[in-house]
């Protein structure tokens, strides 16, 4: 099967049962996306699929041939981090770091959803103001952090949102 | 995970014929529930017919009014659709109350309807469960049933349907359009899911090979003033322990039209016809709302640990209708 990851095409010979997460980690050795719960409950495996954030543990690799995948490795570099990565650095948005790549990919996808005008469960009609903390918390609720670094993750994302 | 054949389909007809010849197969849409159940050994299809390439990704206006939602429209896109937000706010709110941003980006309209119960005995392949292994028994009746059914259950199964979206669709009186080996048919969404009876392994009235192609929303004036209210064990990203979808039109303090459906209380999204009947023509007051809820909940048969749901739904009905009508206490 052909997977397109971070702009590079890869021809892989995989068992059809292989999830996108396992294809990335075990076959392409891109270990940024993490296997947390492996059931779509923690968000550690979040990547961008055609620009949309998704749980890569619940997606069969075979079903995403030719669809552009972006992992945390494809977002920025050490010299030029993505604004969301810079936000996490500036605000110390992590402790152990295990959930961090998923948090970062999720935040990148989430900020794009906000730019499209997509509402969340806490959005009120006609609410076009800056992304407040309640919005960030609700929109990021699919990413769990067992260290409880939320207090710094929220300002990290707020900074990337330009607040 | 048991291995399977993978067959991507390009159009509805080829998807239907591919599955018609695979009695142990199933359709793959967003996969957010199916792939998980395959990992758990609860779902063991031998063929997956991938329907993601089917041209079912549009929301279009129906000629006579109303909206046609393609079965492949993602939950996130449907929730954000301007016409849905304007004319059917209860549907947008229900979608946004469910799952997470990541899951809503994959989950589809058709797949959301066909997701399986999250009853923990069903999800655990080492436990008896009449829905997963017919005749093996139901440990939930005496075991962990805090979040299981209080309406329409049977001695064989007390599972609930977990969808938020489906509760809104039930209140709106949506129609599910289906294509199958024997042609097309329309099914009211309130009749799509069955009650468990003595065959809880059968979730819906769909026959093997039938494919949901769209969900049609009728033009519905009352839906413009509508809301979804969900109670759960944490602030976000959790299944409902009880929910209410409501639409109401009150004038001069009298209820002229009302739609109500309850979630997380039954094997299907529970359209509350008795409550609606009890409210029509009645004053739009908290007392009427509570009496209407009681009319529906009189049929409740709670188990040892879930009687709280009856009170919860009663209060959600009153609070939601009070907010929509501006009724005081």
UniProtKB/TrEMBL annotation, chain A:
Keywords: 2Fe-2S, Iron, Iron-sulfur, Metal-binding, Oxidoreductase. It comes from the Bacteria. One of its GO terms (molecular function) is oxidoreductase activity, acting on the aldehyde or oxo group of donors. Residues 1-75 form the 2Fe-2S ferredoxin-type domain. CDD domains: fer2 (cd00207). This is 2Fe-2S ferredoxin-type domain-containing protein. Pathway: Alkaloid degradation; nicotine degradation.
UniProtKB/TrEMBL annotation, chain B:
SUPFAM superfamilies: CO dehydrogenase flavoprotein C-terminal domain-like, FAD-binding/transporter-associated domain-like. One of its GO terms (molecular function) is FAD binding. Residues 1-222 form the FAD-binding PCMH-type domain. InterPro entries: CO_DH_flav_C (IPR005107), CO_DH_flav_C_dom_sf (IPR036683), Diverse_Substr_Oxidored (IPR051312), FAD-bd_PCMH (IPR016166), FAD-bd_PCMH-like_sf (IPR036318), FAD-bd_PCMH_sub1 (IPR016167), FAD-bd_PCMH_sub2 (IPR016169), Mopterin_DH_FAD-bd (IPR002346). It comes from the Bacteria. Keywords: Oxidoreductase. This is Oxidoreductase.
């Amino acid at each position: 099967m052909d997977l397109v990851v971070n702009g590079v095409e890869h021809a892989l010979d995989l068992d059809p049962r292989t999830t996108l997460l396992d294809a990335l980690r075990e076959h392409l050795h891109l270990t940024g996306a993490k296997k947390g719960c492996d059931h779509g409950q923690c968000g550690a495996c979040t990547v961008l699929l055609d620009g949309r954030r998704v749980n890569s543990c619940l997606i069969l690799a075979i079903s995403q041939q030719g669809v552009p995948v972006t992992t945390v490795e494809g977002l920025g570099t050490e010299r030029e981090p993505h604004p969301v990565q810079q936000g996490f650095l500036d605000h110390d948005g992590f402790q152990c770091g295990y959930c961090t790549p998923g948090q970062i990919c999720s935040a990148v996808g989430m900020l794009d959803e906000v730019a499209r005008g997509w509402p969340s469960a806490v959005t009120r009609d006609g609410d076009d103001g800056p992304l407040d903390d309640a919005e960030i918390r609700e929109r990021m609720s699919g990413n769990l952090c067992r260290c409880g670094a939320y207090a710094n993750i929220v300002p990290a994302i707020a900074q990337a949102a330009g607040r | 995970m048991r291995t399977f054949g993978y067959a991507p389909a390009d159009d509805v007809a080829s998807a239907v014929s591919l599955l018609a010849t695979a009695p142990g197969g199933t359709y793959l849409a967003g996969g957010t529930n199916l792939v998980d159940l395959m990992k758990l050994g609860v779902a063991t299809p031998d063929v997956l017919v991938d329907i993601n390439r089917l041209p079912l990704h549009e929301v279009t206006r129906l000629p006579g009014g109303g909206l046609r939602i393609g079965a492949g429209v993602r939950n996130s896109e449907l929730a954000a659709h301007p016409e849905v937000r304007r004319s059917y706010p209860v549907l947008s709110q229900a979608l946004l109350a469910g799952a997470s941003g990541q899951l809503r980006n994959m989950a589809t309209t058709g797949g959301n309807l066909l997701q399986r119960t999250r009853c923990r005995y069903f999800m655990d392949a080492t436990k008896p469960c009449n829905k997963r292994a017919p005749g093996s028994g139901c440990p939930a009746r005496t075991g962990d049933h805090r979040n299981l059914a209080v309406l329409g259950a049977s001695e064989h199964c007390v599972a609930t349907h977990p969808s938020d979206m489906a509760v809104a669709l039930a209140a709106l009186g949506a129609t599910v359009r289906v294509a199958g080996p024997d042609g097309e048919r329309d099914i009211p969404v309130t009749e799509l899911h069955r009650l468990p009876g003595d065959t809880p392994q059968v979730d819906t009235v769909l026959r093997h090979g039938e494919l949901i192609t769209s969900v049609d929303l009728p033009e519905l004036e009352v839906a413009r003033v509508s809301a979804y209210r969900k109670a759960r064990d944490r602030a976000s990203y959790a299944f409902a322990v009880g929910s209410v979808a409501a639409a109401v039109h009150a004038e001069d303090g009298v209820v002229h039209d009302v739609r109500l459906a309850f979630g997380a209380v039954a094997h299907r999204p529970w359209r509350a016809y008795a409550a609606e009947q009890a409210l029509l023509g009645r004053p739009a007051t908290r007392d009427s709302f509570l009496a209407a809820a009681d009319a529906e909940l009189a049929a409740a048969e709670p188990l040892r640990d879930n009687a709280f749901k009856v009170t919860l739904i009663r209060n959600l009905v009153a609070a939601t209708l009070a907010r929509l009508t501006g009724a005081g206490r």
